[in-house]
Specification:
Blueprint: E1 2-6, E2 9-13, H1 14-19, H2 23-30, H3 33-36, H4 49-60, E3 67-72, E4 75-84, E5 92-99, H5 108-123, E6 128-134, H6 138-146, E7 150-161, E8 164-174
Parallel strand pairs: 5-6
Antiparallel strand pairs: 1-2, 2-3, 3-4, 4-5, 6-8, 7-8
């Protein structure tokens, strides 16, 4: 499955994206300290080919398509996905994303977040999507605001990164309010 983002970029199902991927380029983009420092620690650093293979295998085993590669003509350059919730929170998900540094500042992630949000509301039946970002990540805050998310609050000292307690900002989009 592909979702066109414009300007030659797509959200693509990982299994399809990985078939013709420039794997070395992808691992190099993922193995960037400046990318990693804005992500939760479950994203490994250093990032290796084995980490990429593990990621592909994990996504291949999912029954609901919720995570996509952000691709250009040469393959994956980042990722955008949803962590689907269950039980009382089954109507919601958390969105996350990253993009290789050479592609920053081109509106690619904003387009990806808009497209993934539309997909989640239309195809997955969700009514709420949240994003938790480090308060220091001004670029990600701008992405979410441009994609139609609203800031809901500050989660003080909610995350640890490199031994430092960091504040997180909570953004959300609600299906009935969302206007990308």
């Amino acid at each position: 499955m592909d979702i066109e983002l414009g300007n030659g970029f797509t959200l693509r199902e990982w299994a399809l994206a990985w078939e013709k991927a420039d794997r070395e380029r992808f691992v190099a983009l993922a193995n960037d300290y400046d990318v990693w420092k804005q992500l939760y620690d479950r994203f490994p650093h250093p990032y290796t080919s084995a980490d990429a293979d593990e990621w592909i295998a994990l996504n291949a085993g999912r029954t609901t398509l919720s995570t996509f590669a952000i691709c250009d003509a040469d393959g994956p350059i980042g990722s955008a996905g949803l962590t689907l919730r269950d039980a009382d929170y089954r109507h919601s998900a958390e969105i996350g994303y990253w993009l290789g540094q050479p592609f920053w500042g081109q509106g690619i992630v904003t387009a990806a977040v808009k497209a993934l949000t539309a997909y989640a509301f239309e195809s997955l039946g969700l009514i709420r999507i949240e994003a938790h970002i480090f308060a220091r990540n001004d670029a990600s805050a701008r992405v979410l605001e441009k994609a139609g998310y609203r800031r809901e609050g500050l989660l003080r000292m909610a995350s640890m990164k490199e031994g430092e307690a960091l504040d997180n900002v909570l953004f959300a989009a609600l299906k009935h309010e969302w206007r990308p």
